[in-house]
Every structure is written in structure tokens, then in C-alpha cells.
């Protein structure tokens, strides 16, 4: 019987897709983001094993809230696509039983053709673009960004709906040319229903401490409102540059 490794779950999520949502956090991630607030999800071998039916049983008591709010089921992580067969079956059953809206929250470190079955039962993709500059992306996450940009293009080319999210860390994401380039890239995509900057916060530091790990961004503050406004302005300017060329 197909089982997934689950880190945790949330029954009343309000930030990971439209409406009120059941959010399932999968165990395992191949990126090691310096600002990660769930580093305990990185291990591929930990977490609680659950079957699809066991997860569906957790969802069922709250269905009326999800339906009435225009919400549904979001699978996040860790990185959900590392357990694509399990998530595919979960989405398929949630649609078959309840016609529930499905959202995949992913860092994009996978290939569209390899997870096509999962994307075929996914109504919305939340795609985290960590950094548009490849070298800075490697420093930030430990991996290059080519796969992330490639899957964004795949989603665009295949008519899939997506929200793009971008964590903003002072000193890492403030370069003007990077923000303009991010906007140019987003502006070249089809199907982007929403773009959102997520201001960096320190709320996950205690998890690094519990693991006995040194926190890479020790002392880095959260961005100011002015920094976030500037980032939105430059990204929008980059989008407009792309639009003007098309």
C-alpha cells in the first residue's frame, strides 16, 4: 500500500492557496535554504508514514469549511514532488470523492515531464522562486536555479495556473538588477495569477537551535516596509519591460 512520509498537517491554513485549506507538509527536501523555517523537514527518512486513506480521514471532518470558503487541499513540504506518486494518488482521491481544489506548493526542483501525472491533478501550483541569479541561488540553497526556471517555463507552456512566491532577505535579495530580472522572467510567463513577496522572518531560528545547527542568517533583520515596496516596484518594472517587448 502506497505510503507517504508526513512531517505535519494543518487543518485551517489560510496562506497556502485560496480559501481555508488543509495543508499537508511532506517530509524531505533536497534544498537547504539558509532561511528555512522548517529544517527538520529536510531528512528523507524521518516523518510519520501515512496512507492516502489516513490523510483523507484527517481532511473529511473539515470539508464544509474548505468548500464554503473556496478552499481545498494544499500539499507542501519539505518538497512535495519528492513523493510525487503519493501526492498524485492523494489529489486524485480528493477530487474523486469530494471534487476538492488541489494546490501543490513546490520549490520547483523537479521536471514537469517527470511529474506530469501529479500536475494533471493539480489545480494550482505555488512556485517558490528563491533567487533569479544562479550563483546567489547556489549560495542561498545549495543548488542551482535552472530546474526552477525550467519548471516555471513548463507550467507556462502547458497552460497551468501558478502563484509565484519570493522570500525577500535583506542583503540577499535587494540588488536592483536581480529584482528587475526577476520581473522580466515573471513577465515572460503565462498563467501567473498572483505574485507575492514573503518578507523574511526569524520565527524558525529555534528549530535550528533544537537541531544543534548554526543559523546561517544570524543577526539578519526582517525587511522594512520600504524595502518590500521597492522590491515590488522594481519587479513590476521588469514585468512591464517584458510586456513592452512582446
From TrEMBL:
Primary location class: cytoplasm
Entry's cofactor comment: Binds 1 [4Fe-4S] cluster. The cluster is coordinated with 3 cysteines and an exchangeable S-adenosyl-L-methionine.
Any one Gene Ontology molecular-function term assigned to this protein's record: [formate-C-acetyltransferase]-activating enzyme activity
Cofactor: [4Fe-4S] cluster
Keywords on record: 4Fe-4S, Cytoplasm, Iron, Iron-sulfur, Metal-binding, Oxidoreductase, Pyruvate, S-adenosyl-L-methionine
Reaction it catalyzes: glycyl-[formate C-acetyltransferase] + reduced [flavodoxin] + S-adenosyl-L-methionine = glycin-2-yl radical-[formate C-acetyltransferase] + semiquinone [flavodoxin] + 5'-deoxyadenosine + L-methionine + H(+)
The keyword Endoplasmic reticulum belongs to this UniProt entry's keyword annotation: no
Name of the protein in question: Pyruvate formate-lyase-activating enzyme
